[in-house]
């Protein structure tokens, strides 16, 4: 039963019931008592979580890191009306009449930055509502206001997306992809986990495609899931990837691809016009003249040629990516030793690319002006009170050597662009959604200061860190 709606209905129902009560004995009063409890339970949700009433909220006197890359500005005000930012201005210029009318939140000595975006998550492989809600809650109260879901059972992700937008669960907004791959990929057991009741490869969010596929129909089926993008995953030749990308763009969908889907490789994906490519360690195939097919053995690569951060084949690729604005979704953390003990991912094979080599490749991309988003593609332990994203940000700093301001841009503006939401989020400017984070300490001086979140604002609604309910054992079972 949907509390909110039930709450309002029970009110009306109470009135009519009360009118009828004069005619009925005891059972009536018990029913009335039950309905009253529901209404009270509904009213029990902390006031700050409620949708913002019309009227203006003044976030006052903060040191503003607006996400544009501009240096922080002290003593700034942000006026929010409903879900959106109305104005951003120095406190000294605020009209006293506006100040008097607005509900003020004092942010002096505080830092205000855009809400962060985890550009690579999987919330339903397999569907696990309790786990998904726990991860999303940890994200939101840690400053993450949007996530990009990179393929899953979209029946479950669609419902989570609705519940988040409706404010029924404390969660970031979710933008997701419908997957396409060649037939050989659909022997992977994960495709079965996310297609229960259907046939992997033949459901709109997991489609097997070949040269014979009716692409306008396949893309329209994917779009019908309310997906933001098509995810090109595996077993795809370059020409087919190009045709899918052209059709997806024609139908207004983005295209997010694995950097090497086999047998196509990164430069094929970039030339196909995809919007973002994932996994720095999949870039190691770029120098190879021949890339095997998906189902053929994938021989180890000599990683030495990537350790100096000056690989010539990657230099050509990154030049083209920078020219086109193709985003690199590096996901370095998922190649780290933190994944040991994972229940969903095999351990890294000896001699395979890890976060150190992936970090060198990402540093080369960063220095070549390739836009890099911040995506996790892994799930932290339930004991961790902070978003998984913080691990990726740390890894971009330690392994790719990116400076803090670039890393915060990866987690904000570039993340917004990766999700196709740059008009609505990723920076603090008038007209955009009021997705913001208030911190006690400056994240530009030390990324560890991200763990000083005091409140998250999503679509103008305030989520104080004090309201965060920590995770418990068994909240996370599939990681
Ligand atoms: Zn992934």
Tell me about this structure:
This protein has a single domain, classed as TIM Barrel (Alpha-Beta Barrel), CATH 3.20.20.140. The chain has 14 helices and 18 strands. The protein has helices at 3-21, 26-43, 96-101, 129-140, 154-165, 189-193, 215-223, 238-250, 266-272, 312-324, 355-367, 389-398, 404-410, 413-418, and strands at 56-64, 73-81, 84-90, 103-106, 111-114, 116-121, 144-149, 173-181, 202-203, 206-208, 229-232, 254-258, 276-278, 327-329, 372-373, 436-439, 453-458, 461-464. α1 runs antiparallel to α2, α8 runs parallel beside α9 (266-272) and α9 (266-272) packs parallel to α10 (312-324). Zinc ion binds next to loops.
In short:
The chain has 479 residues and is α/β, with parallel strands linked by helices. The chain has 14 helices and 18 strands. Strands 6, 7, 8, 9, 10, 11, 12, 13, 14 and 15 form a ten-stranded mixed sheet that branches.
Q: Please name the CATH architecture.
A: Alpha-Beta Barrel
**How much β-strand is present in the residues?**
15-25%
The figure for the number of domains is 1
Shape: globular
Helix-strand layout with pairing:
Blueprint: H1 3-21, H2 26-43, E1 56-64, E2 73-81, E3 84-90, H3 96-101, E4 103-106, E5 111-114, E6 116-121, H4 129-140, E7 144-149, H5 154-165, E8 173-181, H6 189-193, E9 202-203, E10 206-208, H7 215-223, E11 229-232, H8 238-250, E12 254-258, H9 266-272, E13 276-278, H10 312-324, E14 327-329, H11 355-367, E15 372-373, H12 389-398, H13 404-410, H14 413-418, E16 436-439, E17 453-458, E18 461-464
Parallel strand pairs: 1-4, 1-5, 6-7, 7-8, 8-10, 8-11, 11-12, 12-13, 13-14, 14-15
Antiparallel strand pairs: 1-2, 2-3, 5-16, 9-10, 16-17, 17-18
Helix pairs in contact: 1-2, 7-8, 8-9, 9-10
The structure holds zinc ion.
């Amino acid at each position: 039963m949907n509390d909110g709606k039930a709450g309002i209905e029970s009110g009306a129902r109470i009135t009519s019931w009360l009118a009828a009560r004069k005619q009925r004995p005891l059972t009536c009063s018990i029913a009335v008592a039950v309905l009253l409890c529901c209404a009270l339970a509904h009213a029990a949700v902390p006031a700050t979580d409620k949708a913002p009433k019309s009227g203006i909220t003044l976030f006052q006197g903060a040191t503003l890191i607006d996400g544009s890359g501009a240096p922080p500005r002290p003593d700034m005000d942000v006026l929010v009306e409903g879900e959106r930012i109305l104005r951003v201005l120095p406190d000294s210029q605020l009209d006293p009449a506006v100040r008097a009318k607005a509900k003020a939140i004092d942010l002096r000595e505080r830092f205000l930055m855009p809400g962060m975006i985890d550009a690579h998550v999987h919330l339903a492989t397999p569907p696990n509502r309790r786990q998904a809600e726990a991860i999303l809650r940890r994200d939101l109260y840690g400053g993450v206001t949007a996530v990009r879901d990179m393929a899953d059972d979209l029946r479950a992700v669609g419902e989570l997306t609705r519940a988040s937008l409706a404010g029924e669960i404390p969660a970031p907004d979710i933008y997701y992809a419908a997957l396409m791959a060649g037939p050989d990929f659909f022997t992977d057991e994960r495709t079965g986990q996310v297609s229960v009741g259907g046939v992997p490869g033949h459901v709109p969010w997991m489609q097997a495609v070949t040269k014979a596929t009716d692409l306008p129909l396949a893309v329209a089926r994917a779009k019908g899931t309310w997906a933001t993008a098509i995810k090109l995953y595996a077993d795809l030749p370059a020409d087919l990837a190009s045709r899918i990308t052209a059709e997806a763009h024609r139908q207004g969908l983005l295209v997010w691809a694995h950097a090497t889907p086999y047998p196509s490789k990164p430069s094929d994906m970039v030339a196909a016009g995809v919007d973002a490519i994932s996994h720095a360690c999949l870039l190691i195939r770029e120098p190879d003249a021949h890339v095997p097919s998906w189902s053929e053995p994938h021989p180890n690569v000599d990683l030495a040629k990537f350790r100096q951060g000056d690989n010539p084949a990657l230099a050509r690729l990154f030049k083209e990516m920078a020219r086109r604005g193709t985003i690199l979704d590096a996901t370095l953390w998922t190649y780290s030793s933190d994944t040991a003990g994972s229940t969903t991912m095999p351990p890294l094979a000896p001699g395979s690319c890890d976060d150190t080599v992936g970090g060198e490749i990402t540093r080369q991309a960063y220095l070549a002006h390739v836009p890099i988003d911040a995506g996790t593609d892994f799930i932290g332990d339930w004991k961790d009170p902070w978003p998984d994203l913080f691990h990726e940000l740390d890894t971009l700093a330690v392994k790719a050597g990116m400076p803090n301001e670039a890393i915060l841009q990866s987690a904000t503006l570039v993340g917004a662009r990766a999700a196709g939401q740059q008009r609505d989020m990723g920076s603090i400017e008038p007209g955009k959604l009021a997705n913001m984070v208030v911190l006690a300490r400056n994240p530009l001086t030390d990324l560890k200061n991200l763990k000083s979140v005091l409140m998250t604002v999503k679509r103008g609604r305030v989520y104080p860190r004090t309201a965060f309910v920590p995770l418990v054992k068994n909240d996370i079972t599939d990681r």
